[in-house]
Write a structure and sequence with these properties.
Layout: H1 4-24, E1 32-35, E2 38-43, H2 47-53, H3 57-91, H4 119-143, E3 148-156, E4 159-167, H5 169-174, H6 177-206, E5 210-212, E6 216-221, H7 226-229, E7 237-241, E8 244-245, H8 249-258, E9 263-269, E10 275-281, E11 285-289, E12 309-312, E13 315-316, H9 320-327, E14 332-337, E15 340-345, E16 348-353, E17 369-374, E18 377-378, H10 382-389, E19 397-404, E20 407-414, E21 427-429, E22 436-439, E23 443-445, H11 448-454, H12 463-475, H13 479-482, E24 500-502, H14 512-534, H15 542-555, H16 563-592
Antiparallel strand pairs: 1-2, 2-3, 3-4, 5-24, 6-7, 6-23, 7-8, 7-9, 9-10, 11-22, 12-13, 12-14, 14-15, 16-17, 16-21, 17-18, 17-19, 19-20
Helix pairs in contact: 3-6, 3-16, 4-6, 4-14, 6-14, 6-15, 15-16
């Protein structure tokens, strides 16, 4: 079967050929122009409407002046951010999914963070953003008495991709700098204003109509795990274990830890609303290992599935409860998997000792450290260490027992002040015990409650809260990549909608609330990014024009000659710097790593 992408590219090339032939033979109407696969439709309609809208000119000039000030702040911020990111990309190149070249393109399905499932909402937000952006330019042309040559739509083949306003060039050049600057800033101002309006609606009544459904949301399943073998799937909600209700992910984890039986009865509600009960035969397996704890060839089982744990110190174990009960008596344990055996120091594995840690002077740099006791109290997991320290105070002396490079050591340590009220040891810890994480079930929880909270669910409105939520929303599509959560957020799409229920002011819309939320989310996200992008101080973007007119205004007031040369030098330097910074941001980590 021919790939859909190749069919689309073939259709685009055929369209390009036909339009080129039609243009050469004069078959296209005067209003239609083509350049490659891009077709523009020019019209004079809408000028009367813009003339009417522009009549309260004093109001629009005040709005335009506000937009110029905001745009200048954003331009400076964008310039500093891009240059700093470019320097970091060279000095400390760390390739990530964010700076992969395909993720620069705002194309659903190509960009890893813009899934095809929400392509209609993304395209809607982009089209609305382009219309209000170009509409702002057109409106401020008329406010400043700049003639408009034409307006219209831009299409990729037959697909609308934007709108445009084409000022009459001579009329624009005759306008004063202030008029031109307000006109160039108008598009950015409208995009940011539209984002604010969309986020106000989203954070308020729309998200207020969405609540987290009861149960543990399943974000993913470990291949070959007991849950996968039992037919539990992504998008399911686990609502009960052995007929005991489960409220959320932490409740599920605690319930499974407390149950010692190898077989458990699991009640699941799928994305279709069907509830089923299945039996899960628990089996212990490795889900994560810190570097250096287990040989690389032992971290993957058959067919890429995680290795299963057979015995610990010769005793057969099937559940986490049995595993932790076995390792608690002896820090040094032998773990046997279906890939072989390895020795484990069971304790709180230290990933990094901070410079302000009281252990910093005692432990050699780069040593592997596993804390097994504090004042004689057995430490198995990071939770045990946190609980032990919670009863201490800064300045208190404690005895820390740790295995340093596999050799047991004791340190009489004086705890210091830290971010919490209790004593501070100043170490960053790996998950699990001894640097390994084990599981006997095999599901990864989806942070449904966390995402809803970032969108304002369950909180009242405040300016500070609105700004905080707006910043959070900008990172939600990248949340998993930047470490905010374990998943990226693409909106309320199937099967994620199974993790939420509808109620509140828009409850009468039913499932339509999810569509409305997605439209507002992506419209706000696309528009604020569109506004920031157009503030890049480089031609032919609005930021480049604003930089030029603003620089001219400043230079013209200085007692110097050759003002045009100085203006051109400044704008050229800034533009080239931005271009270099953007190239380094995208390609630097791959080139210099």
């Amino acid at each position: 079967m021919v790939d859909t992408l190749w069919l689309a590219l073939g259709g685009l090339m055929l369209y390009w050929l036909l339009v080129t032939v039609a243009q050469q033979r004069g078959w296209l109407p005067e209003q239609v122009r083509a350049q490659g696969p891009i077709t523009t439709i020019h019209t004079q309609y809408g000028k009367v409407l813009l003339d009417r809208l522009s009549r309260p000119k004093r109001f629009w000039r005040a709005w335009g002046n506000f937009g110029v000030g905001m745009s200048l702040v954003v331009i400076v911020g964008v310039f500093v951010s891009v240059i700093y990111s470019g320097i970091v990309a060279v000095s400390n190149p760390q390739p990530t999914a964010i700076n992969e070249p395909q993720n620069v393109l705002v194309i659903p399905g190509v960009n890893d963070f813009l899934p095809l499932a929400v392509a209609p909402e993304i395209i809607f937000g982009l089209l609305v953003g382009l219309v209000v952006h170009e509409g702002g330019h057109g409106l401020f042309c008329r406010v400043g008495d700049i003639d408009i040559q034409s307006m219209g739509l831009a299409l990729l083949a037959i697909i609308p991709i934007g709108a445009f306003v084409e000022p009459e060039e001579k009329s624009r050049l005759e306008a004063d700098r202030g008029t031109q600057t307000r006109m160039f800033a108008a598009g950015v101002t409208n995009n940011i204003a539209l984002s604010i309006l969309g986020f106000v609606l989203l954070f308020g009544p729309v998200v207020g109509s969405i609540a987290v459904a009861p149960g543990a949301p399943v974000g993913d399943i470990v291949d070959g795990s007991p849950a996968a073998n039992a037919g539990i799937d992504r998008g399911d909600r686990i609502t009960a274990i052995n007929n005991q209700s489960v409220a959320n992910e932490s409740d599920l984890d605690q319930t499974l830890t407390e149950i010692e039986a190898q077989q458990v009865s699991v009640t699941v509600e799928d994305s279709n609303g069907s509830e089923t009960t299945t039996q899960v035969e628990r089996e212990l397996f490795l889900t994560h290992t810190a570097p250096g704890v287990v040989d690389a060839n032992m971290t993957t089982g058959e067919n890429g599935t995680p290795p299963h744990i057979q015995t610990v110190n010769g005793s057969q174990v099937s559940t986490r409860a049995e595993f932790y009960e076995t390792i608690e008596t002896n820090p040094v344990t032998t773990v046997t998997t279906d890939n072989g055996s390895f020795e484990l120091i069971a304790g709180a594995s230290v990933g990094r000792i901070n410079d302000d840690s009281p252990l910093a002077d005692d432990v050699p740099d780069g040593a592997s450290v596993v804390i097994t006791e504090v004042d004689g109290e057995r430490i198995v997991t990071p939770t045990d260490l946190q609980r032990s320290l919670s009863d201490t105070s800064p300045g208190e002396s404690v005895t820390v027992t740790a295995y340093v490079n596999d050799t047991e050591r004791q340190y009489n340590t004086t705890l210091t002040d830290g971010p919490e009220d209790h004593g501070y040891l100043g170490v960053s810890l790996h998950r699990g015990t001894g640097g390994i994480v084990v599981d006997d079930f095999g599901v990864f929880g989806y942070p449904a409650e966390q995402f809803l909270g970032m969108l304002g669910g369950g909180t009242g409105f405040s300016i500070r809260g609105f700004l905080s939520q707006s910043i959070s929303v900008l990172f939600l599509p990248l949340a998993g990549a930047v470490g905010l959560t374990s998943y990226n957020f693409a909106g309320f799409v199937d099967p994620i909608t199974n993790f939420y229920t509808i109620s509140g002011p828009f409850g009468f819309l039913g499932e339509g609330v999810f569509l409305l939320a997605n439209l507002l989310f992506w419209t706000g996200w696309i528009n604020i990014n569109l506004g920031f992008f157009n503030c890049v101080p480089a031609y032919p973007l609005d930021g480049g024009h604003i930089l030029r007119t603003s620089t001219e205004a400043i230079v013209s007031r200085l007692p110097i000659k050759n003002g045009r040369i100085i203006t051109r030098t400044i704008t050229t330097f800034v533009g080239l710097s931005m271009g270099a910074g953007l190239i380094l941001m995208v390609f630097g980590p791959q080139l210099f790593n």
